[in-house]
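Troubleshooting entry. Yesterday's outputs looked truncated, so today I'm pasting the complete records for two proteins to confirm everything comes through intact. If either block looks cut off, that's the bug. Protein one:
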Amino acid sequence: MTTNATPILTLRGIRKSYGPIEVLHGIDLDIHAGEVVALLGENGAGKSTLSNVISGTVRPSAGVMTWQGKTYAPSAPREAIDAGVGMIHQELLLLPHLSIAENIFLGRYPKKGGRIDRRTMADEAAKGLARLGLDVSPNRLVAGLSTANQQLIEIAKALTLNAKLLILDEPTAALGGEETLKLFEQITRLREQGVGIIYISHRLEEIRRITDRIVVMRDGDKVQEFDRADVPVRSIVEAMVGRSLERMFPALPVPGEETVLEIRNLKSGLGHFEGINFKVRKGEILGIAGLVGAGRTELVRAIAGADPIAAGQVLLNGRDITPKDPRTAIRNGIVLVPEDRKQQGLITGHSIAENIGYANLSSLIRNGFVTRGRINRFAEENIEKFGVKGRGGQNASELSGGNQQKVVIAKWLARNPKVVVLDEPTRGIDVGARSSIYEIIVALAAEGVAVIVVSSDLEEVLGVSNRIMVMAAGRQAGILDREAANDVSVMELATA
């Protein structure tokens, strides 16, 4: 770590209120050139709000900031970017109808002769993509790209800003191990070039690996600061949650002998995978691991009827129910909690009660009608059951990521499914919320449900699975029993 004595960014007494509710309570913070500072805290701690203040998305209610020794008060993200401050948001902000290059240079297109210089734009975008190992044409549309690839494009977009300060909000949430390493390489280079970086993540092991010091927030306050990153995970977590808590996985129940779900020689109708064969027993949790692009998400989407199947069978309790659409899968008892909860799992502009009710209308209708009161009562039961911190009438958009995920889980589990598939179930979720979601997953298995968990977090997939199927380049590389599965054995198969 090489830092200058004078900070490039200072915050003093930063407050932010929404009406009578104050969400930031007088935050002081210094960021130096050439250092990576971890900004940690549970969902709702104020991390994103503080980042949005720095990046010009949100204006503070009180307090002052300086940037490179001068007063700094951006009224819009453009002003922050022009000053040299860039941010990669946790929620993807790409425009699907534009090309990758157009998204990367949106609002700052290179010009030549008064016109957009598309060749230069494509060349520069290609360089940014290559730095992150993304082999895709900069001229293709963003529409249809995986969440992981879209995240890499967001990162490439930030890298082309030539910023002096970068704020990375959960940059690896959708990335696998190989992509994460490439990002770390870029962060190291930027640090050597004197760029200051604010790094927000719930993956505590990568915090210890890539950052220089740690700032912890809780309930809108800066509660602790560690002058180094190699502190015990327990100490970090206790500062985040204000109580003693370690990231631990519940004990797994012993699966039954009965096969609930069987996949026979399944082949993607979109060319993403082929030759997939596995079984999931009653009360078993099958983890699916692999690098980004291995075909994991595409496989579970096909099993849930969301993507077409070219060949093979999906059997439920020995009966062929190979789904042609999600409705077929749902009616037969297969439900999917998708990796992108905001785009695919929720209608964020609608209430919690409505979101839960939409997936369960068939059980709520009486004589051809469904009343709002019936939906609200049903929703409240499930809000309490799954520990959602919110009211039925509250919009889903107002919830933290962890509580949004609990709503998605609640709406499907209320149907009493036979098979539950969870794709990246804790993406972008804090330690406390992760623990409760792990408990929900294990409780499902204990009730005899067959569970599939797809995760890019190797510790997670190892911690919650009875067995792990590893995928590589669209093929099934192997299935490991819990006793044989570890970081090395999984990565050997994933990179084979």
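Protein two, checking that the full record survives here as well:
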Amino acid sequence: MNPVLSALAPVVVLVALGALVARLRWVGPASVKELSNLVFLVLTPALLFRTMSRVQVQDLDFRPVAAYFLAVLVIFAGTLLACGFSRRSAVLALATTFGNTVMIGTPLVALAWGEPGLVTLFTLYTVHTVVLLTSATLVLELAVMREAAAGGQARHPVATVLTALRNSLLHPVPLPIVAALLFAQTGWSLPPVVARPLELLAGAFTPMSLILVGLTLAATSWSVHWRGALALSAVKNLLHPLLVAAAGWLLGLSGVPLAVMVVVASLPIGANVFLFSQRYRVAEDLVTASVGLSTLLALGTVALVLSLAPLL
């Protein structure tokens, strides 16, 4: 089977399954919010801690990752400037930069480049979630504080920043990452009584997240959001890899490391963005439509980028 199709097919099937469940009314709209909380507050921390608890930062080469994040910085900051500083713009900025690197990226890179490609990919994993989700959390918390100040609940700017920093660290995303990285540096291993439940919870994250996307997608009005979804998908699927390739060229990178970064940048919008939109109750329908459309378009766009990767 074509490597792009084999990597994307499970994602499409799980999203479609969620949409079918919603159409059959096996899960109602009220339950979707509760399931979203379960994924965000329980499954996400388990996945993050389990993944990051085995990372030895000193053994990783971050040079190819620099090209990736130069492009991320341009797109993230550009989205905030274009849309204004708000919860909505922060979620949209995350949508244009955060890809489905776990479920699609791993099998795709493994099929295309094997072990050398996976080493580069796992180096990106080390900072991808830490940087993007933590940055998004901080921006969102600052936006929440700004909205509160506009509503007459003003506080000193320093107090606002400190409160936002506290809220962004004492959060279901950054907190397990920081705790796991600290644990990893001790050289210890998790005891089976802890490691096995974490493994089971982490394994449930991806299917549950994608089914949730499908559940919400079934109630999303495509006639209203298709233009916005197409714009976000174009930035994520095409502009992001183009900017990564340009950044890599400027940094003098070539070969497998740069090719892996460019292909990973072309991956569709990740389900974590949907969870953030649900968590902060902003742009939910638009993000849901964008995740679905970005994944469908990736059947063509990822194949295109993958075919051009050997030229890097």
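Both blocks look complete. Sanity check on protein two: The chain has twelve helices and no strands.
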